[in-house]
Amino acid sequence: MTTTLGPIGETTHGRICRATLAIETRRPGFTEITGELARFLRQAQAGDGLLNVFVRHTSASLTVQENADPDVRTDLMTALDRLAPRDFGWVHDAEGPDDMPAHVRTMVTDASLVLPVAEGRLQLGTWQGIYLIEHRDRPHRRTIVLTYSGS
């Protein structure tokens, strides 16, 4: 996994910091980005507030999910494959047989998350992590917009 965190910008109206995160994916699956989000919050000198995480693509998505047992992510990919199979006979197939199923999978997961931040730290549960889910078969460079607002 290759990640790149862009420069952090700050507005003059309140405390709002923005940056972009670039993630290189190789294949369908989950890429944990919790560490990159924590790094952004440290660089932004975050206090108490909210972190909005938005993926700028219609064939990749975001989720909060268990980060302890990788079998959970394997089973979730199996469930998404059954929900939106590549060989379903989709009408939209101009970009290949994996494109329309990727759109369906994104629709049932999320393109954005809003996460609570206290004292500069994500308020996640013990076994929770933040993931980018790649739904396409070939490698992609995915862009995620991070916006922190708070103290």
Automatic annotation (TrEMBL):
Taxonomy, superkingdom: Bacteria
InterPro entries, per the entry: UPF0047_YjbQ-like, YjbQ-like_sf
Any Pfam family matching the protein: YjbQ
Family stated for the protein in its record: Belongs to the UPF0047 family.
The name this protein goes by in its record: Secondary thiamine-phosphate synthase enzyme
Species this protein is from: Faunimonas pinastri
